[in-house]
Write a structure and sequence with these properties.
Largest sheet: 7 strands, mixed
Helix content: 25-40%
Order of helices and strands: EHEHEHEHEHEHE
Shape: globular
Strand order of the largest sheet: 3-2-1-4-5-6-7
CATH topology: Rossmann fold
CATH superfamily: NAD(P)-binding Rossmann-like Domain
Structural class: alpha/beta
Number of strands: 7
Number of domains: 1
Strand content: 15-25%
Length: 146
C-alpha cells in the first residue's frame, strides 16, 4: 500500500538507490511519488530510466516538493546541502538522514527549529541490501519535534 506522500532523495548513491528500490518493490510508493535530486545529468537519466521516477538537479526544488526527504549525500557535503534546502523546510516535512556520521544535532543547526528529523546514519551496506528486499535492521532515532 502506497504511503501517499511525496518522497525526495537528496543524492542517488548506493544507499539511496537501495531504499528507492525497496520502496518501489514493496509498493510503499509509486514512481510518481518519488523525486530524486542528483547533480550529475547522466545519473539523473539513469535513475529515471531504471525506476520511472523524476530526477532534478536542484536539492532545494526536490525539498520544496516533498513531504519526506532522505538526506543521502556524502557527509562532507551534508552541511552545504542542508543550508541549501533550509528555506524549503517547514514543520510539515520529515527529514531522514542516512548520511554516515551526520548527527541530529548537526542537522538541527542547519534547519528551521520546527523541522522534524530522524537519522539512521548507522545504516550499513548490508542493511541497505536488506531494505531492497523489504526488511531492515536499521533503527531510526527522531528529534524532539513531533
Amino acid at each position: 500500500m502506497a504511503l501517499g506522500k511525496k518522497i525526495a532523495f537528496l543524492g542517488t548513491g548506493n544507499m539511496a538507490e537501495a531504499l528507492l528500490k525497496g520502496l518501489l518493490r514493496a509498493g510503499a510508493a509509486a514512481p510518481a511519488e518519488i523525486l530524486c535530486a542528483e547533480p550529475r545529468e547522466e545519473r539523473r537519466r539513469e535513475i529515471e530510466a531504471r525506476y520511472g521516477v523524476r530526477a532534478v538537479a536542484s536539492n532545494r526544488d526536490a525539498a520544496a516538493a516533498a513531504d519526506v526527504l532522505f538526506l543521502s549525500v556524502k557527509p562532507q557535503i551534508a552541511d552545504a546541502v542542508l543550508e541549501e534546502i533550509s528555506p524549503a523546510i517547514d514543520g510539515g516535512k520529515l527529514v531522514v538522514s542516512i548520511a554516515a556520521g551526520v548527527t541530529l544535532a548537526a542537522i538541527a543547526r542547519r534547519l528551521p527549529a520546527a523541522a522534524r528529523t530522524s537519522t539512521s546514519n548507522g545504516l550499513s551496506r548490508s542493511a541497505a541490501r536488506a531494505c531492497e528486499r523489504g526488511s531492515s535492521p536499521a533503527a531510526p532515532c527522531a528529534n524532539a519535534n513531533p
